[in-house]
Amino acid sequence: MHTTTRRLIAGNKITPRELNTIRDERIALPAPNGLTHLQFRRFAGCPICNVHLHKLAVRHAELVAAGILEIAIFHSSPEAMRPHQGALPFAAVADPARELYREFGVEQSPKAVLHPSAFTTPLRPAAWAAVARGLRAGGRPSPKGDGALGLPADFLINPEGQLVAAHYGRHANDQWSVDDLLRLAS
C-alpha cells in the first residue's frame, strides 16, 4: 500500500501549533528560538527507529548546542510509546491517527522493509539492545496493523515555521544522522 501525498520542500511554511508529548508536556512547533528537527518514525517498538533515537539521545548535547530542538513523532499510542521513548532527553509525540503524517506527506510503502539496510539493522546488537530496553519497560516490539510499512521523514524548521530542509526516507533506515543535522544547522 503506497500512498502518494503532497510532499513538502524547503521554503514551505508549516502551521504553528502546540503538541502534547507522551509525558503530557506541551511543546511549541516550531520552537520559538533556534531550529526544530521534526522527525517522523515508524511504530513505537521499531528496532531501527529506536537505534536511531538512541544515537540522537547520546549526542543530544551537541544538538542543543547547535540550537536544534528535537521532536520525534510516532504513529503509535502514548501508552505504546512510553516504554520505548519515555526516557528520551527530547520530546516524543504520539500521532496514532496519523494526522501529522498526512499533513507532512509522510508515506507508507512495502519498500520500507525491503532495502538491505532496513532488514539487516534489526539483526545488529544495538537493535537487540534497543528492543530489550523497551521490553524491560513493558513495551511491545511489534507493530499493529500496517505499522511496519511506515517510512521515516525528517524536517528542519526555523522559528518562523519555514522548512529549511526536508528528507523523505525511501526505506525504514533512511533518515538524517546527527552529523547530517549538525551540517544542515550550520
Short description:
It contains 7 helices and 7 strands, in the order βββααβαβαααββα. The protein has 186 residues and is an alpha/beta fold.
Would you give an account of this structure?
This protein has 186 residues and is an alpha/beta fold. The protein has 7 helices and 7 strands. The chain has helices at residues 47-58, 60-65, 78-85, 99-103, 116-120, 125-136, 178-185, and strands spanning 17-20, 26-29, 35-40, 68-74, 91-94, 153-157, 163-168. The strands form 2 sheets. A 5-stranded mixed beta sheet has the order 5-4-3-6-7. Strands 1-2 form a two-stranded antiparallel sheet. Helix 1 crosses helix 6. 39% of the residues are buried.
Sheet with the most strands: spatial strand order: 5-4-3-6-7
Q: Give, in order, the helices and strands.
A: EEEHHEHEHHHEEH
CATH class: Alpha Beta
Net shape:
globular
Question: Whole-number radius of gyration?
Answer: 15 Å
List low-confidence stretches. none
User: CA-to-CA gap between the ends?
Assistant: 37 Å
Q: So how many helices?
A: 7
Strand content: 15-25%
Question: What name does the CATH topology carry?
Answer: Glutaredoxin
- What's the number of structural domains? 1
Going by CATH, the architecture would be 3-Layer(aba) Sandwich
Helix and strand content put the structural class at alpha/beta
Average pLDDT, rounded to a whole number, is 85
